[in-house]
Amino acid sequence: MILPISTYGSPILRKKAEPVEEITPELLELANNMLETMYKANGVGLAAPQVGKSIRLVVIDLAKEDEEHRPIILFNPEVVPEEGENPVETYEEGCLSVPDVWANVSRPSRVRLTYTNEKGERVVLQNITGKFARCAQHEQDHLNGILFTDKISVADKAMNASKLKKMAKENK
Ligand code: NI
Q: Using an 8 Å Cβ cutoff, are 153 and 105 in contact?
């Protein structure tokens, strides 16, 4: 089922999401609906608050368009920068909740991702880099009420100010 995506200005995008206590069939169905919604919108990641559920659930699929789907369902994900040398990387981001806005965001290049998978197993992935690290950090921010537009330069903010203002007004 395709779910409606909350966009910039919706209060739910600014709330800190609640931890998932138990993985129920309803939550697995929600995760699958989120994947379907994300694929339809050509996204690579989607967090539950973006579909109106303030819980710590994220879906990610970094497979390219011509590849088989490789969905990952993450309950209660935690992303932390790895210790040691970890240069900040700047890369252009967008977000299904902030349509038509793309801008550079700087983030640590190497992170550790811990999450509970759909079988209830806690998984630890160390030294994640590239697109996966980028996406994990972006989605983690969603669970804490943070949007990528909070992290863009003053110049990029100014350039997108009218779009953001318009969306915020519509979603008030
Ligand atoms: Ni996003």
A: no
pLDDT digits (tens, 9 = 90+) for 51-108: 999 999 999 999 998 899 999 999 999 999 999 988 999 999 999 999 999 999 999 9
Q: Measured in whole angstroms, how far is the alpha carbon of residue 20 from the centre of its chain?
A: 16
d(CA 128, CA 80) in angstroms, rounded, equals 10
Q: Which CATH superfamily is 11-170 part of? A: Peptide deformylase (3.90.45.10)
Which residue from 17, 26, 63 is spatially nearest to 44, judged by alpha carbons? 63
Closest CA to 96 of 2, 3, 7: 7
Q: Alpha-carbon distance 21 to 153, whole Å?
A: 37
* Whole-structure pTM value: 0.97
> Active site includes 139?
yes
In 4-122, which ranges are continuous DSSP H helix?
A: 25-40
- Ligand 1 centroid from CA 151, angstroms: 12
Centre of ligand 1 from the C-alpha of residue 18, in Å? 18
Using the mean position of ligand 1's atoms as its centre, give its distance from the Cα of residue 65 in Å. 19
